[in-house]
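Researcher: Good morning. I'm working through a list of sequences from a screen, and I'd like to move beyond sequence-only analysis. For each chain I'm collecting a predicted structure so we can compare shapes side by side. This is the next one on the list. No need for commentary yet; just the structure.
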Amino acid sequence: MTMHQELILNKISSVLQATDDSLVDKIVSSVDKAKRIFITGAGRSGLVSRFFAMRLMHSGYTVYMVGEIVTPSIQAGDLFIVISGSGGTETLLPLVRKAKSMGAQIAVISMKSQSPMAEMADLVCPIGSGNENSFGIVKGMPMGTVFELSTLVFLEAIVSKIVHDKGLTEEGMRALHANLE
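Model: Good morning. Structure tokens for this chain:
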């Protein structure tokens, strides 16, 4: 393992150790209760949101990426998951307000426990200690890298729990994987 790989893995591990373990069950419960799941994020957090959406779809949930042309209207009984490091991404705030006004449950995954999005959320999932300063500047991991990679691993662990708890198989999940690639 190179020094840089070790640096990255150690930092992600320290962030995940500071993340409240009870959030995993809270997210799984929210996902299980939802009629449909809508997911969004901007920039690199948007890429992480796509990973999570795909894995939830492979796990048998009805999932939509916000902004896609085939995404239906959100309604009461739906879950809206927003990934935003700052919890205040200007392009996402109107979407959170709209989803809330339609009666959807809101889950915000962020590096902050308090933010404009957190104020509207039914579930706030701070990655790390809930204080963006706890991420610190890590040489070689610029501009939000620590949040995005930590969030990706956190969400993949949620999918792992779902797969384990539901007894999902590789074959069953693969059957749901896109075959028009």
